[in-house]
Amino acid sequence: MAVISGINGAVYWNEELTDTGSASDIIFSSGDGTIVSDLDIDFETKGFKAGMLVTVAGSTGNDGTYTINTVSSGTLTVDEAVTSSTGELNVITFTEAEPGYEEAGFYNWTVNYKIDLMDATVFDTSSGGRTYLTSITSWTASADKYFLTTANVVNDWLGETVKARFFLNYVTTPSTGSPSQFYEGNTIVTGIDVGTPVDALVSQNISFQGVGALSLKTQTQAWNLGIST
Predict the structure, then answer these.
(1) Helices H, strands E: what count in the chain?
(2) CATH number of the domain at 16-96, out of 2.40.30, 2.60.120, 2.60.40, 3.40.50?
(3) Fewer CB under 10 Å: which end of the chain, C or N?
(4) H-helix or E-strand containing 16?
(5) Element (H, E) at 41
(6) Are 142 and 208 in contact (CB under 8 A)?
(7) How does DSSP classify residue 215?
(8) Domain boundaries, the chain
(9) How far is the CA of 142 from the CAs of 85, 117, 127, 137, in angstroms?
(10) Cα Rg of the chain (Å, integer)
(11) Taking Cα atoms as reference points, which of 102, 106, 52 lies closest to residue 79?
(12) How many of the other CB atoms lie within 10 Å of CB of 54?
């Protein structure tokens, strides 16, 4: 059995960014993998970032999921090939795709996963000891990261529901022979603590309360093909 080093761990979340643009103002350029929104969308202000996956829908011949290479106010460059086009006829939607995005600085995470027990002891079966039935599961998590002076979006998470993924092993291009493995679930951020030592980097501890099920998943295909079931 292979063991996993924590050096390949990560914390990802999906901010669920989405925006639409008038197709007549969006140009796909196949020569350099560029998607230009002349008038409608300021990708940079909306929060799209290099390394994020974005799904395009509503285009003529360019629907799919792309890996963002660079971002400016009205332009995305992507790693995958696009088909040249101008004067698209539909409304085109840009949506952040899975697995989400990792803000730099995470260096530790912990997940606590447990199941509740119900006492089922009755007089005629106790025999001097208790019996139990399993009930529902619950989970919490925490993650430590270094404080960032810009784009530190976690400060807006308190009290919000966030989809988080806690990677045991993150692989940029997963495959059957080199898979990614992670826990995923919806969470409510219940606390953000900041530590400011005089002789170290400023750090943040983020506390999560799980909402619903926690799933352990193994990703064996490229991220732009979707999350493995």
Answers:
(1) 1, 13
(2) 2.40.30
(3) N
(4) none
(5) none
(6) yes
(7) E
(8) 16-96, 106-225
(9) 46, 24, 41, 18
(10) 22
(11) 52
(12) 25
**3 state SS of 76:** strand
How many angstroms separate the CA atoms of 40 and 51, rounded? 22
In tens, the pLDDT along 85-99 reads 765 667 889 999 888
Q: What are phi and psi of 224, to 5 degrees?
A: -75, 0
Cα 119 to Cα 171: distance, rounded to the nearest angstrom: 43
Q: 20-51 b/e with 16+ CB inside 10 Å = b? A: bbebbbbbbbeeebbbbbeebbebeeeebbee
| Vertex 88: Cα angle to 83 and 89 (nearest 5) | 145
pLDDT in tens, 119-140: 988 888 767 788 899 999 999 9
N-term to C-term CA, the chain: 23
